[in-house]
Design goal:
Elements lengths: L1 H21 L4 E2 L10 E2 L6 E6 L5 E8 L11 E2 L7 E5 L6 E9 L2 E4 L3 E3 L2 H4 L3 E4 L5 E5 L2 E5 L4 E5 L5 E7 L23 E4 L3 E9 L6 E3 L6 E6 L20 E2 L6 E4 L6 E9 L4 E9 L4 E2 L6 E9 L4 E8 L1
Parallel strand pairs: 2-9, 12-18
Antiparallel strand pairs: 1-3, 3-6, 4-5, 4-7, 7-8, 7-9, 10-13, 11-12, 13-15, 14-16, 16-17, 16-18, 19-20, 20-23, 21-22, 21-24, 24-25
Length: 322
């Protein structure tokens, strides 16, 4: 009798362990995590199959539109007809959506952790511009006078995503550009370029992950640099005239997404958006320099954006919400 009781207890223990194991669904796919953690990155023309690592009795897949806020305010919506172990998503319809699956197996019901179909980096190539304080003045958004002898560092905001680049010193005549376009800077194929001569700079680049998928920087995002011996360059003592701390914003004006910052700062402890009446209308903490800020809910107008780096530097900029 004692032996039977021990066996029964052991069997019940195994049953509980089995049920618990069945209640921990996990999503997998061939490219999950290959570029970004918990994200599937695939080309716009491709499909990708999501699946659970174990089989269950029933399935219901859900998707949720991506949002920069945490927690995400968008609802989870059941995917119509998605009731099998696998779900096929595609680069046209499913980019920037989170996915999860709810499973049942006997008395067990559970949801998987969410994953992201991440193609956002492909949609908006952008350029980060590092100007040395005191060596430039802003003429208008996207145009700067720069002291002769100074340099301006231009960087692709998504260096991990894009491979070969074509850098330009003026606006190219076609998109994609002709290999003989006179605006092409010969030999400039990296994800950064150091400008030291007057011109209008931008780039065309192909994603490293999808070599046939290429993007041209928007012409309004090209930056115009005028190098010369301007009055602000020296004070007569050889010292550089100080300049108000400002950061490059892109795009400006904007309707939805705004990028701020520079790679050398890496991150900002706080980013505050203030309207012209002095009211704080949006704030982000621990903001990474290459992450978009969604300003689509702001009323069209001019705003001040104040950014504080981790080491205490403060930058002040204005941008226009269209």
């Amino acid at each position: 009798m004692k032996t039977k009781l021990i066996f029964l207890t052991f069997w019940l223990f195994l049953s509980i362990v089995k049920i618990q194991a069945q209640c921990t669904p996990t999503i997998t796919s061939p490219r999950l995590g290959t570029m970004f953690q918990n994200s599937v990155v695939f080309c716009n023309t491709e499909t990708e199959t999501l699946s659970t690592t174990q089989a269950y009795g029933s399935y219901q897949w859900y998707r949720q539109q991506w949002n920069w806020q945490s927690p995400n305010p968008n609802p989870w919506v059941p995917v119509s007809g998605a009731t099998s172990q696998t779900l096929t998503i595609n680069g046209n319809d499913d980019m920037l959506y989170n996915f999860k699956v709810e499973v049942t197996d006997g008395d067990c019901t559970a949801e998987s952790p969410a994953i992201l179909a991440d193609g956002y980096a492909y949609g908006l190539p952008f350029m980060m511009v590092d100007l040395t304080p005191g060596t430039y003045e802003e003429v208008q958004p996207g145009e700067y006078n720069v002291c002769q002898g100074a340099t301006v560092q231009l960087n692709n905001g998504f260096p991990a995503v894009y491979g070969n680049h074509t850098w330009f010193k003026c606006l190219p005549g076609n998109n994609p550009p002709s290999p003989t376009d006179p605006c092409i800077i010969a030999g400039a194929m990296g994800d950064s370029y150091v400008a030291s001569a007057s011109g209008e700079y931008g780039f065309y680049a192909c994603t490293e992950y999808c070599p046939s998928q290429c993007e041209m920087l928007s012409d309004i995002a090209f930056i115009k640099l005028n190098f010369g011996n301007f009055g602000f360059c020296t004070l007569g003592t050889g010292e550089t005239k100080p300049k108000e701390n400002v950061l490059t914003l892109y795009p400006n004006p904007t309707t939805q997404f705004l990028y701020i910052g520079k790679e050398s700062d890496k991150a900002y402890s706080s980013v505050s958006v203030i309207d012209m009446s002095g009211k704080l209308v949006l704030q982000r903490n621990n903001h990474q320099y290459n992450v978009a800020i969604d300003v689509s809910t702001l009323v069209p107008g001019t705003y001040m954006i104040v950014s504080k780096t981790l080491d205490g530097k403060v930058y002040k900029n204005k941008f226009i919400k269209k």
